[in-house]
Amino acid sequence: MTAIGQSLPRKEDPRLLRGAGRFGDDLQRPGQLHARIVRAPQAHGVLRSVDVSMAVAAPGVVRVLTAADLPDDPRIPVRLTVQGIELTEHLQPVLARETVRYVGEPVAVVLAEDPYLAEDAAELVALDIDQLPVAMDADAGTVAAEFELGFGDTDAAFAEAEHVVELDFDVGRHSAVPLEPRTLLVEPDRATGALEVFGMTKVPVFNRGVLASMLDIDEARIRVHAMDAGGGFGVRGEFYPEDFLVAWLALHTGRPVKWTEDRAEHLVAVNHSRQQQHRISAAFAADGRLLGLRADVAHDNGAYCRTHGIIVPELTLAMLPGPYRVPAYRGRIAVVLTNKTPCGTYRAPGRFEGTVVREQLLDMAADQLGVDPVQLRRRNLLEPAELPHTRPMSTLGTDVVLDAADYPGLLDAAVAEAKRLGYYAQVEQSRAAGKRVGLGVAMFLEKSGLGPQETADVSVGTSGAVRVHSGGTSLGQGIETVLGQITADGLGVSAADVTVINGDTALQPFGAGSWASRSTVVGGGAVHEAALAVRERAIEVAARILEVAVADLTLHDGVVEVRGAPGQRVSLAEVARACQPGSAWLYAGEPAGLAARRRFEVAHMTYPYGAHLAVVELDEQTGGVRVLRYLVAYEVGRAINPELVRGQLIGGVAQGVGGALSEEFGYDESGQPQAVTFMDYLMPTAAEIPEVDVLVTENAPSADNPLGAKGAGEGGLTAAGAALANAVRNALGEAGSVARLPMTPARVRAMLAGEAG
Amino acid sequence: MKPAAFTYHRAHDVRESIELLTELGEDAKILAGGQSLAPMMNFRLARPSALVDITRVTGLDYLRHGADGLRIGALTTHRTVETASELAGFDVLPRSAHWVGHYPIRCRGTFGGSIAHADPTSEWCLLAVLLEANIVLAGPRGQRTVPATEFFHGFFATAAEPDELIVEIHFPEPARQAALTEFAQRQGDFAIVAAAVRLSSVDGQCTGGRVVLGGVDPRPLVVDISNALDGAAVTESTWDAVGELVAGQLDPPTDAHGSGAYRKQLAATLVARAFAEAAAR
Ligand SMILES: Cc1cc2nc3c(=O)[nH]c(=O)nc-3n(C[C@H](O)[C@H](O)[C@H](O)COP(=O)(O)OP(=O)(O)OC[C@H]3O[C@@H](n4cnc5c(N)ncnc54)[C@H](O)[C@@H]3O)c2cc1C
């Protein structure tokens, strides 16, 4: 029985469910100090002075750090440069020096003996700020970057069009709110000058490199340890000002320094996301064929460009055509700086935004053309025979080549499943009963498995236990389980015998991290190849022990066996011992150990896809929106662990419901954030999330990796805004659009009353 | 989100609570369920110099239903009210309890704490005003009773002195036809607007009613419906008309959860719904 394809229980669960997980805030080090960040209380101003005299004198305070104490003006570099656009002058300083640009910007750090004293002293840091005018929306901000993507002749397409459909659509500012806010503990080793770092996730190897260069020390002096994390979703684990500040303080005080972000900080400090204004138009032939697409987008990036640079706007443009046949496309985007928290990626970056805009436009077009919305999509989806399909533009530094897929097949399957589950019948019955219900369908294209590489080490210990050192991080997604299953099948052992360690830069110095739905696809590819290499070596050494030819041996269930002679066998543990230094089975000069390191490289991403269907009911008086039914249909290529795929999709829907209906980081006109607690930042709870139906298909395995897997991390969220916007629009019976997300009750009430939302 | 420094004191009875409050001065605060005070302290919106923890004070956790109405001890939890049976005439209280926060909050938060905290959307505050309850206070000068209609002075401000303790909330008159309903975007949130109403009717004809709203004013707002209900039929259209009448008298504030205009619309809707629910009792 193979492990791949089984819904094995998660390897992570025994420790997480028993409270034995290792989270940043659980760690205590003797002599540790606690950092508290002093944050700008105003959105824009000249920082005249930072008076720390009272804070320094406060009980328990060890040090107060301001920009003046730092030798130069350290800024956090962009992790992914795309479209060759230079952003140096917009990068965020680790501490504001002359100007503050958003409420929450770090201005000073107080280091004290306990977190209470640190917070007390932080209140005593006196900031003298001369207020400057604020730019609170994209129209008022400074353009940091502008670019275009596209192909074909859109002018000709629009000139020959029978129908042109236009839409203005805004997506509100919201972001990921993981259960566990960020934490960091940096412990210096005073003997060696090394720094032990606990709490960095996502891209630990990259972050180690950034930290090393910013501190001007060799990267080998920094070790980032494997940790658990209570959710990542894109925001956790990027290199933030705090990642530098905590390490700098540890290095310069010689004491362990811990920082635990609180929720109020989190909501102003981590990357915000999503806020964009879109104007898109589509040209259709009389028969409903899409001839061309144009998009003009303004991306409100907040005060600085952070590690993601401009990849969210880039992905918006690059993914906007989706799974459709678009002969001509031109997308333009302006990335605008405003006096708000800087932005970055949030699960399904650029796709959540682009998908809602495109899919709402298609529903409007269907009405305008007088065709069924599903039929209109069906007519314009790329057919399997048209794939692979190259779009002459690039994203994330790779060409857009849509790989094996059956988009129309999936849409049909999704609609059939929704019918089978009674969605359509429920809508009809509810309408007959006078209820205001609506059904929305949205199709989406995802991307996953970004390269260029991932590296994995697989080794077998003398007890026969298998260890995997991979470069991803455990964010709660179950990556240890998945990589364990892949190893088990590649090597020929039980998944229970495999231990996976992620995110330790000493154990895996070449890891590229867990993001962009890449760990199963690319990390899995590396683990698979390393496991095969270990298998090969085990068989080779076993052949020496058993004195048979390699070709006569098989390896399964942790035992190497002579084919047809099951009594003639040697366990993997014995083979591992035979690979120990000094063993008689090793040849002279042959390296010891039963282990392999492999690097898996990919040139292109692989593109999963799917459809979301939602049924909503509107309360005509209050404007409240209730999600009654929800279906995600998703093509994953190959489900390594089907239950985990389901879990990913359902979790994504929950976040999508939030972004579509309630979550928003609002600001007042002076730049004060309006959602700084969970009383105002409205994440949906179990009561607002419907039962989610899931249909996972494995009809289009990826040809680009040995497992055929496509990523599963984001598709539950990608089309949630779109399906819900279409469902609400359908319930409203609007000819126009719902115009913006989130669709709050007040806005829906206004639309019901026929007022502009 | 760590509170500023404070000293902690545990009281074991009402007298000791009052002694401690007197001794510690007006910056001291009572700690009951902590469901409002602790978050405010963590955000440093409240900075009491001392806390007097009354959760171990005995004899303040009761629901007594008798000839003189219903008496609720200050330390009675929301959950105890929610699960109370045999409160004939006062069952609007248990019926409304599910609107108060979430289960864990209802298990710790106290009735007296809600009244003392005086959030203008608090269900208990609205119902205390609706049912014309009396708030019983104990202090160094002895015990006194303040009508709920005079108790709430504004956002988190009440008639209680810093050295006084709420010991009991007394509901003298049953109201068989009463209901509370509200709207928030999520289950368990403080209401954007809440409406509490009572009705009296005879043979399909209304004889009177009372409306109290939350979320439209710094205090639970009694809205004058004069005799709009007198003689009106017990029907949907009556409730809609009263809802409109109520909304027309409001000038609610705008905040991130809704504009003043939206709150007026909600008030009209919720008043009508609450009357429909009350009429069905
Ligand atoms: C997420 C969340 C959602 C909530 N939702 C709602 C809701 O929908 N509706 C609602 O009404 N409430 C809600 N609450 C608040 C909750 O009901 C509190 O329990 C209540 O407001 C205060 O009661 P407490 O016992 O916790 O008081 P505490 O928090 O301990 O104290 C609150 C205040 O009252 C004072 N106090 C307490 N007891 C007395 C007393 N006997 N005499 C004098 N002063 C006293 C304290 O000094 C303090 O100033 C919510 C709370 C949370 C955290």
TrEMBL record, chain A:
Domain Aldehyde oxidase/xanthine dehydrogenase a/b hammerhead: 18-133
The organism's place on the tree of life at top rank: Bacteria
Disordered: region residues: 1-24
Keyword Oxidoreductase: yes
Cross-referenced InterPro entries: Ald_Oxase/Xan_DH_a/b, Ald_Oxase/Xan_DH_a/b_sf, Ald_Oxase/xanthine_DH-like, AldOxase/xan_DH_MoCoBD1, AldOxase/xan_DH_MoCoBD2, AldOxase/xan_DH_Mopterin-bd_sf
Keyword tRNA-binding listed: no
UniProt-recorded name of the protein: Xanthine dehydrogenase molybdenum binding subunit apoprotein
Keywords, ordered alphabetically: Molybdenum, Oxidoreductase
SUPFAM superfamilies cross-referenced by the UniProt entry: CO dehydrogenase molybdoprotein N-domain-like (SSF54665), Molybdenum cofactor-binding domain (SSF56003)
SMART domains membership: Ald_Xan_dh_C (SM01008)
Record GO terms (molecular function): iron ion binding; oxidoreductase activity
Automatic annotation (TrEMBL), chain B:
FAD-binding PCMH-type domain: residues covered: 1-176
PROSITE patterns per the UniProt record, alphabetical: FAD_PCMH
Coiled-coil intervals, chain numbering: none
Superkingdom: Bacteria
UniProt-listed SMART domains: CO_deh_flav_C
MF GO annotations: FAD binding; oxidoreductase activity
Assigned keywords, A-Z: FAD, Flavoprotein, Oxidoreductase
This protein's name: Carbon-monoxide dehydrogenase medium subunit
Species of provenance: Tamaricihabitans halophyticus
